[in-house]
């Protein structure tokens, strides 16, 4: 799911919300195979009717289309709309400003956002069901003579700045004794990165699915997979600090998150529908959606100690490499919305 992806807000954070929010929709348009999440007490909160929650989506996971297919928000007492972003850093900034209430990003945007002292919290984890399946990779064009990460020395690497793919590039270089100074990082958003990669203006591209899977299908080659120890396979839900400090709104936001968890639990049991949702939302062929489907299959869980440790290690690496200028304490930006032990893969969704 949306790894969901994420990137230095210093540069991209100034993007206007209007340029990154490319689609909004309500979720009350479809049949509703899902009922209220187990444990949801939405019916006991008539005051929630005054809320409209905006869910940030940076693409890839089909969440907006899945909401329509499953009808998971149809019986919610509050209203929901989706705001589409091209990638993670602007989404984190929007959460901090209160323009969205909840959204899913990769591992780096919370770090770069915290370095800029944005007011948001990490509230849950999208944990991969297939942690041996990379959702993002460093790829080289068809016919490239580059054979290993060491061969990247002196080369141009396209990367969305401040994103999870930025983190992959940084750690991949470090794993072979290279630093950002040994290469030329070309900071491009995903669309511009695709153009540069396809026209030979860069030597490599650090990017996530479905872009990575589509490029490989068209002849590109994976130079390094986004897997531990150089990359995380989890992504993170971030929420507006102002929403979290309001007790009534916080309770309602927990219900929103649980419904999203049900939505994705349903999706992994209905892979054909899930692929269709991704294809429609991304505007890509169904076969391309199916090719990257496994990397998107996740379960929603609370943030665990190991997640904080992994994020802290990544934050320290960004500081060491000069990619951020302020030390980040990951534990200080963590605020679990879900109870300990919550695991959406165990949900009964039909």
UniProtKB/TrEMBL annotation:
SMART domains: PBPb (SM00062). It comes from Streptomyces griseoruber. Part of a binding-protein-dependent transport system for aliphatic sulfonates. Putative binding protein. GO terms for molecular function: ATPase-coupled transmembrane transporter activity. Its main location: periplasm. This is Putative aliphatic sulfonates-binding protein. GO terms for cellular component: membrane; periplasmic space. SUPFAM superfamilies: Periplasmic binding protein-like II (SSF53850). Residues 52-278 form the Solute-binding protein family 3/N-terminal domain. It comes from the Bacteria.
